[in-house]
């Protein structure tokens, strides 16, 4: 019997596109496909990789990856889709083009160029995550050495779970000198909060109040510190510390379904930046792009039947926001996606890992070298655009209209909302960003709840609980922890089932996914 | 013992990158576990490759053996019958019950990889390290019952 030679393996270096840290790693290929990933000791993360990066090989080689377009649940060939799309763009006024995550700078520019050439004027980002509003802060690139020279760092959110790669520098910085001060602002107890010198644990939705308080902003008739539930003395002390620190910065991460007013939060960050003279450093899952309008106007146009078709480029929409589909049901949706979803026409798309181009990271632009070939049947965005019309990549960037906000009015409204007592027997559902739960690759999500609430409902750890909101329901395992206060439950919101629970408000034309009232009970 | 995985408690941020790296490499079956100290920490629990491994002693088919030279305790996939005796015998709870393939999941320190265990390579905060006995003694890593920074005692 002849024994075959061992399979030849090759390692192709790439940049992780799953958050703005931009870690470098290798994908190991052998004759029959992808074997796994390799940790390459160079680049910004020194070979370390968070769960999102480790999931890359599973994502690239996922058995659910699409190899053909799917329409009404059945595969169709690209030629038919090409014909359909060419017909769709003949009436550009009835078309909206949107884009979410997993696009390169060049692809974004191609989309804008395509819209200009075809006369499509409804262009918006469908990435409705609050972190998209941190984009203006991404203009200045950040160096990890800035952590080392800082005396004080104020953190909004939970970077240890959202951007685990930051943890090494942050922990070493804090352990190096006990005078180094890490201040964490959040509604729930997190791993980052456990390391903090000061944990400003505020009431649900009151993070903007804490930021305004730290920036020494005073609003008549509203005691913003009292509403946030943090003593005046602590706010003053942190505020003074940040202003007087020789070096320092404000590190911002924002989660889905975690706050009521994203724009007020961004304004709070701006005020704190101005007051303290310290920069805001955002860490996001995807540094997004803008269209000429916000997604709320697309929803409005769909409702008024001014548009008939929606073409979405990226990988998440409308999969990520099932609650928005109701408002879009009159539309024919063509959405690119790496995996199959029912209910609209899905076009197999290459992942960023399989493209050539550049992406924005917190540390500046990084290049994807296209070393990994796109999965069978998948096309890049540029290829799909070219199917419809010959275009150049040299498009311009667009900016959605700025929304002017009246801070005083918004603070008043938010204060009123927070002081309104929740209904008996309901809980406030919050979203968290946890890298280990990334798209449900490694573990099913759990719901965190306070042991006292669980006791009242006869729920024990690991019991299955049902959660129901006005938009949907889900069943999850219970995790009992005092990290969440009474009346609050938190989930990672990484799958459509759990994301679909969240309520949303249309603020101007901005979609705001907010903490949501839910009913919860033990599933028999 | 050549080298083993040790945890520097001061540095662990609870992100579970170690577990993800292990799961991604071994078809969704993590061979590193975590201790969930509810409300306070997730602590990675790696196989200690004990000097006198109870998992090997409990195995009815001698599927678990110890390499005399390196101290590495390995499980043979072809001999394992999935009886879970090793999982019950392990005093550290680091052997998983049979999952997809109905054989126990036992850490082999990624013996298929030249640069050592993947969990250590992936560790985002540098808390997991792959060190020899001499290096462990020198750095006093993994020797304390409680972290010097009192991470375990601190409430968030």
Radius of gyration of chain B (CA) equals 15 Å
The CATH architecture of the largest domain in chain B would be 2-Layer Sandwich
The CATH topology of the largest domain in chain B is given as Alpha-Beta Plaits
Any low-confidence stretches of chain A, pLDDT <50, length ≥5? none
Helix content class of chain A: 25-40%
Q: Tell me the distance between the termini of chain A.
A: 57 Å
The overall number of domains of chain A is 4
Characteristic terms for this protein:
heterodimer, A: 524 residues, alpha/beta, N-terminal domain of TfIIb, Rossmann fold, Dimethylsulfoxide Reductase, domain 2, 4 domains, six-stranded mixed barrel, five-stranded parallel sheet, 17 helices, 26% helix, 24% strand, globular, B: 156 residues, alpha+beta, Alpha-Beta Plaits, 2 domains, two-stranded antiparallel sheet, 6 strands, 20% helix, 15% strand, disordered C terminus
Please give a structural write-up.
The complex is a heterodimer of chains A (524) and B (156). Chain A has 524 residues and is α/β, with parallel strands linked by helices. Chain A folds into 4 domains: 9-60, ADC-like domains (N-terminal domain of TfIIb); 70-128 and 288-388, 3-Layer(aba) Sandwich (Rossmann fold); 132-282, 3-Layer(aba) Sandwich (Dimethylsulfoxide Reductase, domain 2); 421-522, Beta Barrel (Barwin-like endoglucanases), CATH 2.40.40. Helix content of chain A is 26%, strand content 24%. Chain A has 17 helices and 25 strands. In chain A, strands 18-22-19-21-20-25 form a 6-stranded mixed β-barrel. A 5-stranded parallel beta sheet of chain A has the order 7-6-13-14-15, with helices on both faces. In chain A, strands 10-9-8-11-12 form a 5-stranded parallel beta sheet. In chain A, helix 9 (207-214) runs parallel beside helix 12. Chain B has 156 residues and is α+β, with helices and mostly antiparallel strands. Chain B folds into 2 domains: 1-46 and 109-149, Alpha-Beta Plaits; 49-106, Alpha-Beta Plaits. Chain B has 5 helices and 6 strands. Chain B has helices at residues 17-25, 54-58, 85-89, 118-122, 133-139, and strands at 4-7, 33-37, 41-45, 64-66, 73-75, 128-131. Chain B is globular. Mean pLDDT of chain B is 82; it is low at 145-156. The chains are: A alpha/beta (524), B alpha+beta (156). Chain A binds chain B through residues 36-37, 39, 45, 47-51, 53-55, 57-58, 160-161, 164-165, 167-168, 171-172, 175, 189-196, 199, 201, 435-436, 441-442, 461, 479-483, and chain B through 10-11, 13-17, 19-21, 23-25, 28, 38-42, 115, 118, 121-126, 149, 151, 154-156.
């Amino acid at each position: 019997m002849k024994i075959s030679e061992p399979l030849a393996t090759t390692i192709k270096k790439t940049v992780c596109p799953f958050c703005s840290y931009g870690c470098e790693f290798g994908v190991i290929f052998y004759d029959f496909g992808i074997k796994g990933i390799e940790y390459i000791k160079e680049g910004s993360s020194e070979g370390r990789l968070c769960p999102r990066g480790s999931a890359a090989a599973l994502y690239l080689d996922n058995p659910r990856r699409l190899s053909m377009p799917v329409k009404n649940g059945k595969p169709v060939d690209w030629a038919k889709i090409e014909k359909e799309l060419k017909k769709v763009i003949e009436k550009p006024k009835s078309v909206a083009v949107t884009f979410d995550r997993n696009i390169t700078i060049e692809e974004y520019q191609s989309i804008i160029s395509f819209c200009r050439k075809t006369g499509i004027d409804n262009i918006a980002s469908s990435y409705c995550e609050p972190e998209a509003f941190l984009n203006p802060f991404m203009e200045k690139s950040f160096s990890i050495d800035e952590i080392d020279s800082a005396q004080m760092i104020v953190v909004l959110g939970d970077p240890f779970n959202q951007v685990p790669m930051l943890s090494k520098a942050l922990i070493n910085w804090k352990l190096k000198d006990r005078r180094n001060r890490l201040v964490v602002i959040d509604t729930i107890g997190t791993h980052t909060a456990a390391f903090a010198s000061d944990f400003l644990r505020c009431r649900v939705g009151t993070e903007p109040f804490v930021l305004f308080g730290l920036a020494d902003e005073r609003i008549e008739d509203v005691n913003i510190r009292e509403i946030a539930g943090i003593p005046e003395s602590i706010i003053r002390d942190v505020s003074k510390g940040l202003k007087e620190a020789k070096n320092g910065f404000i590190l911002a991460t924002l989660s889905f379904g975690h706050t009521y007013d994203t724009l007020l939060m961004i304004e709070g960050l701006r005020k704190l930046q101005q007051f303290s003279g310290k920069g805001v450093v955002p860490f996001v899952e995807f540094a997004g792009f803008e269209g000429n309008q916000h997604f709320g106007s697309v929803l409005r146009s769909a409702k008024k039947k001014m548009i008939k078709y929606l073409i979405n480029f990226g990988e998440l929409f409308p999969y990520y926001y099932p609650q928005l589909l109701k408002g879009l049901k009159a539309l024919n949706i063509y959405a690119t996606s790496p995996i199959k979803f029912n209910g609209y026409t899905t076009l197999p798309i290459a992942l960023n890992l399989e493209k050539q181009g550049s992406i924005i990271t917190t540390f500046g632009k990084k290049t994807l070298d296209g070393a990994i070939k796109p999965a069978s049947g998948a096309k890049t965005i540029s290829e799909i655009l070219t199917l419809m019309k010959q275009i150049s990549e040299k498009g311009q960037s667009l900016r959605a209209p700025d929304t002017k906000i009246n801070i005083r009015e918004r603070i008043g409204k938010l204060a009123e909302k927070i002081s309104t007592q929740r209904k008996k027997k309901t809980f406030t559902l919050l979203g968290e960003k946890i890298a280990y739960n990334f798209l449900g690759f490694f573990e099913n999500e759990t719901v965190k709840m306070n042991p006292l609430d669980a006791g009242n409902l006869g729920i024990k750890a690991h019991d299955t609980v049902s959660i129901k909101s006005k938009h949907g329901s889900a069943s999850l395992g219970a995790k009992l922890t005092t990290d969440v206060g009474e009346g609050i439950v938190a989930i990672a919101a990484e799958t459509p089932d759990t994301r679909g629970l969240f309520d949303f408000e249309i603020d101007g034309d901005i979609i705001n996914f907010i903490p949501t009232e839910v009913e919860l009970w033990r599933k028999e | 013992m050549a080298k083993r995985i040790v945890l520097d408690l001061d540095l662990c941020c609870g992100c579970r990158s170690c577990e993800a790296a292990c799961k991604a490499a071994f078809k969704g079956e993590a061979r590193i576990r975590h201790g969930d100290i509810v409300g306070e920490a997730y602590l990675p629990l790696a196989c200690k490759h004990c000097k006198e491994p109870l998992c090997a002693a409990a195995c009815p088919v001698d599927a678990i053996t110890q390499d005399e030279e390196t101290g590495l305790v390995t499980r043979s996939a072809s001999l394992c019958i999935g009886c879970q005796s090793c999982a019950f015998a392990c005093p550290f709870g680091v052997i998983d019950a049979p999952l997809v393939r109905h054989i126990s999941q036992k850490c082999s320190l990624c013996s298929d990889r030249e640069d050592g265990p993947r969990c250590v390579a992936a560790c985002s905060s540098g808390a997991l390290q792959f060190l020899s006995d001499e290096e462990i003694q020198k750095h006093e890593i993994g020797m304390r019952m409680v972290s010097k920074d009192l991470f375990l005692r601190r409430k968030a």
